[in-house]
Amino acid sequence: MILLFLMNFMVLAAAWLLVFKILRLGGLVDSLLAVFVFYFSQIVLSELILGRYAKLSLTYLCLLNLAILIAVIFITAKKSFPGNARQKLPFLNQLIENKLVFFLFCITFAFGLVKIIINLVNPPFGWDSLNYHFTFPVEWLKNANLDTPITIADDPSPSYYPINGSLYYLWLMAPLKNVFFADIGQLPFFFAACLSVFAISRRMRLDYKNAFYSAILFFLIPNFFKQLSYAYVDVMVAALFLICLNFLLALHERFDWRNALIFSLSFGLFIGIKTTALVFGTLLAVPFLGVALSKRKIGLLVLFLGLVVLLGGYSYIRNFIQAGNPLYPFNLVIFGKNIFQGVMDNRVYAAHFTLKDYSIAKLLFHEGVGGQGVVFIFPAAILAAGLAISEIRKSRVFMAYFFLLPLFFYFSYRYLIPLANSRYLYALFGLGMAIAFYLLQKVRFPRVALNILVVITAISSAFQLAKRQELTLSLILVLVSLIVFPFILRIFKAMRRAGLARWSIIFCLGIVFLCLFFMEKKYQRNEFSGYVKMQKYSGFWPDATSAWNWLNNNTPGANIAYTGRPVAFPLYGSNFKNNVFYASINCTDPAQLHYFPGSHYSWGYDFDSLHNNLEEENNYRGKKDYSCWLNNLSRRKTNYLFVYSLHQTKEIIFPIEDSWAKANPKNFFPVFTNQTIHVYRVQI
């Protein structure tokens, strides 16, 4: 725990020195966003460098980032901090002076704290986390490189996805050898996203109060808020898009190297997190490139391209080297012409969605967008188009584009992204909130009516943020916060007058650290029993949690081959003691899609068609051969075979490996069985 805090302190200190001593952006909010961008950039870049040279270990991570901090201290030693380094956030003044702002803060604090604590004391249950967001970092730590294993018996694309999000999870996992902090790894990005909405609102000349409303109501959108429970990357994507947009607006005000640098770093990190970011990133890159070329800022253009490749290009370059296609396994066809040859067409990604999944009514009323979607975001996206026409008439093309951006974003999601997941729209929600309050301020909407609207929206959202005991606990904490925080603020003011404010902050941080220290120790002891205990809360698959707990209790450190559903992470056990892998059922092992050049993957809405397709002759589970599979298991010194039933089939179906194991009891001895999982002891 101490090492994790020291690692983050080193990187944050380096980022703080660079931003406040070198960049000197002026505004405190922009400076804090820049610190966050440098912090994330250093983590990603240091891990990419070490992974490239197969030196990706905790020791080398610490040494490299310590060396960077020492270099930054040396470079900035003779430079002083500007005045804005000691400024207060406008939010703090609003919190003290405005009762409505204080009320919204208490709701956010109470519900957020309860959600965070629940995540900290319990193991992760997010599908993508257990599938690959956590699995890949464990493999990287074990092998000291960035090779990604195949994700099996489902969409095999994640092995070729951009990896910046997983690199951040690795950063949080490496010192602890668990996901205690990684499971809330998106938390800093929540803050960055909301701070970006605030900054964008201020750049649109909103007053502090309206800017704060736009940011806090964005945070309280139920669908967005509930991402606190999952270690996915969608909040990361939204945060970096909004940071890019904020600095794009800053570039519109002043096109200089400082704003261009932060924009470029953010954009590189952005496209390096998720492939869909390439589509949404085009909406940001086009105006930047247009302005840079029109102003003949060739140097800044080169800076942009270099940083984008450095921070966002790794996975695309790797895919091109391995398969001749930066978007592999996607088969890119434009106007009937095959641009990049892949093994999966666009319709495969869209196979499990229908037109109903894109319904506006479904999005607004059944996807947890809350009152914000109906009252603020949807009307703002439509009305902003009228503002765009007005801006065009005034020859202000950039601002016209800005007001059309919500529509461009939505149409990109609707017609270019083949996945109808509302979480891809988080950046649109943030932008929509900022524009909504801009419109309300512009038409001088009555303040009393606006306050009532804000309160109703916040309260209605709060009741969608949690259920049952969690909701009750959160509401109680809201009431406690409303009573206690005024006293805390008065005490803090008194200590500040006495010159003890700094020590009081250090004392509070120390208490938080001690709480986290003991919570992490308890998490380590109860991690796998926690999977079983939290079945009702998580709604997760009971058969799996009991099997994971059994495996952890019976493996002091083993080699485990798994097949069936692509849920590898829990099989590593506590402290990542086990080695986990997929043993190919043909003679190509390890299996990766690009090792099967004649393969093609295509399926429909029915998941049975997916599993049948994976076993076609030229695909990675084709040409099944028991002797090859047995040899693959033997070569890897396999101790256990963990067999899940196949993913989302109408009936319970086990993969071919289960039949082979049953037919050969001399080599495979069953040690654990339930309805959907079979575990065998392997003796070869």
Protein described:
With 684 residues, the chain is mostly helical. Helices cover 62% and strands 5% of the residues. It has 29 helices and seven strands. The protein has helices at 2-23, 28-52, 58-76, 90-97, 99-121, 127-133, 135-143, 164-173, 187-203, 208-219, 222-225, 234-253, 257-271, 277-294, 298-312, 314-323, 346-349, 360-366, 370-393, 397-415, 426-442, 447-462, 468-497, 501-533, 535-538, 542-554, 607-614, 626-635, 656-663; strands spanning 332-334, 337-340, 559-563, 579-581, 640-644, 668-673, 677-682. Strands 4-3-5-7-6 form a five-stranded mixed beta sheet, with helices on both faces. Strands 1-2 form a two-stranded antiparallel sheet. α2 (28-52) packs across α8 and α4 (90-97) packs across α5. The two termini are 41 Å apart. 44% of the residues are buried.
Mean pLDDT, all residues: 92
Biggest sheet features: 5 strands, mixed
C-alpha-based Rg, rounded: 26 Å
The portion of residues forming beta strands comes to under 5%
Count of helical segments?
Answer: 29
CA-based shape: globular
Q: Report low-confidence residues grouped into runs of 5 or more.
A: none
Strand order of the largest sheet: 4-3-5-7-6
C-alpha termini separation: 41 Å
What is the total tally of β strands?
A: 7
- The SS-based structural class is mainly alpha
The share of residues in helices is: 55-70%
